[in-house]
């Protein structure tokens, strides 16, 4: 069967691929530990679930306005003011079926074929896939290990050309867990001020899973406000990955254009999810804070364990729920007759011989690393990490 050429322009998500392969082994009866997951293992807080049940009983089961109920957009404005000190009007908010959807909506709205999009590495897998899908040109800028996998203002400036249309990044970052400080964002801002044609996607989906004590958004700088598309949602901070609610806060013309596009593709996200979202964005953050406390405990624990594994270099992530160790010391080693050439080989080896699923750094544009998720219990972390240690020790 002949499929459209755009199918070939999109690669299977490596993170989803690893969970698929892990599940295939599990289905064969093998006891695989999954440290590849990109989602909290907690249940959605009870009060949010109750809000959704109430919404069903009250009959919120019809189509809603494409960008979301006005009350939802007002609740998001309230959240942006409360948590980030940002002033947005409900017309500038477009709710969607997840931050991932908001990202492609934004890219479809602003990127023409041939436009350059600067994506710092390591990046979340979906960024480059989405840019390539609309025939944009990805320009990577390498966040170096010695700079905590973040880019500098000088690197940013070097990458900007007259064709640069968009810059997209996440802080806290998936996969590195790095968090840009206010000073670092200020230095990037100083560069952006010189290039007014460059739009900025600030993906803040891990906002709350931040161990620095304070989330800093690049949208706080008034001089950039008219070209920042802030992306966020409920998935990570509220353990609501399955509910599908993301949003953008954007300049009005972008929000309007995005609503037009969304109106032809998906319409609004689920009405019940939106009602739950209204409750969540207006509620206090107590449940979120409890989850973050637990994530911090796990981060400290997994770091301790990881640092005991010979040959891997691990930096301390300041946010999200991943560690991103450099495992390049194992490249070129053998298991029996099989050589481990790179991080892809190493992840496959860890899965097949160690029965532990991780994700290759290649998927995130950083070939020396692998991503290990600690969004699971301490017991599973311990079991998974000891399998990794044992499997690595067998490489000669
Ligand atoms: N942005 C980043 C950096 C992510 O890691 C993820 C999920 O893994 C998303 C966006 C997507 O979130 P959502 O579930 O809201 O689509």
Overview of this protein structure:
This protein is α/β, with parallel strands linked by helices and 396 residues long. It folds into 2 domains: 5-31 and 287-393, Aspartate Aminotransferase, domain 1 (Alpha-Beta Complex); 60-283, Aspartate Aminotransferase, domain 2 (3-Layer(aba) Sandwich), CATH 3.40.640.10. Helix content is 39%, strand content 14%. The protein contains 12 helices and 14 strands. It has helices at residues 14-27, 46-57, 70-84, 99-110, 125-133, 153-159, 182-194, 252-265, 271-282, 286-306, 343-352, 378-393; strands at residues 33-34, 93-96, 116-121, 137-142, 164-170, 199-203, 228-233, 246-249, 322-323, 334-335, 338-339, 356-357, 359-360, 370-373. The strands form 4 sheets. The chain has a 7-stranded mixed beta sheet, with helices on both faces. Strands 9-14-13 form a 3-stranded antiparallel beta sheet. Strands 1-12 form a two-stranded parallel ribbon. The longest helix has 21 residues, at 286-306. The radius of gyration is 21 Å and the shape is globular. The mean pLDDT is 96. Bound molecules: pyridoxal-5'-phosphate.
